[in-house]
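Margin note from the TA: students keep mixing up input and output lines. Inputs are the sequences; the output is the structure of the whole complex. Example:
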Amino acid sequence: MSEVRLRFAPSPTGYLHVGGARTALFNWLLARKEGGKFILRIEDTDVARSTQESLEAILEGMTWLGLDWDEGPFYQSDNFPLYREYVEKMLAAGTAYKCYCSPEVLEKKRELAISEGRKPKYDGTCRNLIEEVPGAPFVVRFRAPLEGETAFDDLIKGRISFQNEELDDLIIQRTDGTPTYNFTVVIDDATMGITTVIRGDDHVNNTPRQILLYEALGYPVPKFAHVPMILGADKARLSKRHGATSVMAYRDMGFLPEAMVNYLVRLGWSYGDEEIFALEDLIQKFSIESVGRSAGVFNPDKLLWLNAHYIKTGDPQRLAELLVPFLQERGVDSSVGPDLVEVVRTLQERSRTMLEMADGAIFYYTSDLEYDEKSLAKFFTPEARDLCTELVARLKAMDDLSHDSIAALFDRLCAEKAVKMKAVAQPARYALTGGSASPGIYELIGVLGRDETIHRIQRALDTK
Ligand code: GLU
């Protein structure tokens, strides 16, 4: 069997959108599953709308998601000579022709057709011109079949067919010599040997035109899989109204790429009731045939749930590295103070995003916490003050800070003073964190270390 070749072909006119990322992911997964190639092609022929910034944003998004490409990036803007060559070939073969109809005349005919209730369509005026008109401006049109039908078996949507009479004699080259979209896609997909085209279903209507071009050029027609669009909760097409649609915005909000990948693949593809897929697992299980026909609905809660899962089960060392920029944004220097990896371990269970984790980590690196009067009055009752003073004294005498010995110290203190654990833990927690919700008190002390723990409790005791 010949090699499976897939591609992702974004236009660099904006950031990497959630929908585009999912299309890229499906292509990538299939390429990896089949041991084929994944090619990146940048469709930048629209010079006015394409920007370097968008290009970089797209590459950054793909890299973040781990969607590495085997060939490319190729740029359509480098291929103008190739497109020219194919236009010439088609003109020579008679599968394309020059059309001299002026835009004004075409517009008049269009209006007339609409007013008479006909579908506007090129009427073929220049289709059978025998002579060229030297010096006159022209476009090049594809000589499309006038009868019959063009059909294909979409790997997701099933059989789709179009009547050829519905299709126009497509312009393949504009008056200024630039090629048009449907033409460049076909030339590139054909010359790059693309075997399966997976793309958004907004391209379904382009497909019969493209198939006719393949046939006219004598190239094999690839398989097509048109992925349904993504909707917001209100069933309208996913847009900024529904929240962030840029993949990188999710990184900035503290999502992990593996959560994003897992979420994106499940937006349209399913495998029984399974929700969580490691990448290797996905590569094995993915198939384009099990992508559903109906639109996926973007559900931010589900994404959050997956992210929490990946944070909980993630490697603390890696999470610590990812956390650093979030801490820096908050003015926190994690190079001094407790070991960040240990800090992360205490927060994994309780953080749904890296942003939440960063917020939760701030107190570890704030030696001089702000204690407010009301909370001090609440937590540091005379009894609590005595207990905390005693706690400080015992901590000073302790040199083993293991979880078990800290637990034993608390147990002994509570037993001797005949108080419940929370009588000590609540004021101590407040002194150590400046708040009332935090990781377990033993973990806290273990991570902060003896001296810092003593410093904070003493400071709270001394704050009037
Ligand atoms: N450049 C097109 C787009 O961004 C993709 C075309 C295709 O995949 O065939 O929608």
